[in-house]
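To fix ideas, we reproduce below a protein record of this kind.
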Amino acid sequence: MPLSFYSPALDLMMSIMRSYDVDPLPILRELAIDPRRIADINARFRISQVLALFEKMENIIPESSFGLKAAEFWHPSHMGPLGYAWITSETLHAAFKRLQRFSKIVTEGSKLTLVETDIDIAMEFRFLGNIALTSRSDTSMAMLLAMIRCNGDHKLHPTSVSFAHSAPRDPAPYYALFQCPVEFDAEITCFRLEREEAEKIRSTSHAQLSLLHDQLMREYLSNLDKENIIERVKAAIVEELPSGHISDARIAKALFMTERTLQRRLQAEGTTFKRLLTEVRQELADQYIRDSKMTLQEISFLLGFAELSSFSRAFKRWKGMSPKHFRETDQ
């Protein structure tokens, strides 16, 4: 199955073209991209079509750094549920984690890796395919800048950025946009953010909306790739947790397969149902516990624990302290 790209994201590229007085419609027709499908949240285009569009833009637009214009035109709708989950994330650190995990919703043409140190966090971009395009990485990095600024601080800038592509004749637009050290001909395209800034609670955060968007993203990914058994199981676990009767047999039934088939497929992926159940519970607990409106009893119920004491013991294994103590120290 060919790699694909979220259709509404192409609206960003159309806005960039129009800003240079380039009519995108003839180009889209030439590449067999139906402009009517760009507004369809359920549609996707082939990565090969999107890369061809980037190539066309590089040949037509005289300004080599045109990809940086993405910072002006980015909107959460270009990324579907991931865009809105990003905005409602409690911290930029949490948002970066979501971006790494769910980036396939927007594009299957790149791999994002979150690298963390005590000083900063960094998002590394590895672009798949044999076509090296300056505009491709410029657009991604400019989008990420717009994304961190939309979370409540329009003057926020990274600690440094690096690009795998060569330095342009005029690097001034890069320094003007990112307002930080910029490296070209780097080993990898990378966006770094100060860890202290990444851990701040954002004014746009909304725990309940974040969780809703997470579930939408799990369902989207499970539908996007029917063979992605891990995401399918995680999505089913989230659905079944509040029932209090979570088991591999119940999840297997929800996915229309036998318990043995489920176990075999998870084993082939190097994991188990028990491990995925723990991962999902940890992810949800980490978000629920920071929502002061939710009681510990409610959290315990939503995570599928029979009793609060069971949840407390599990949480202490994960975090090294009781949920009550964690809440007191996290204020």
Summary: The chain has two domains: 4-198, 226-329. The longest helix spans residues 207-224.
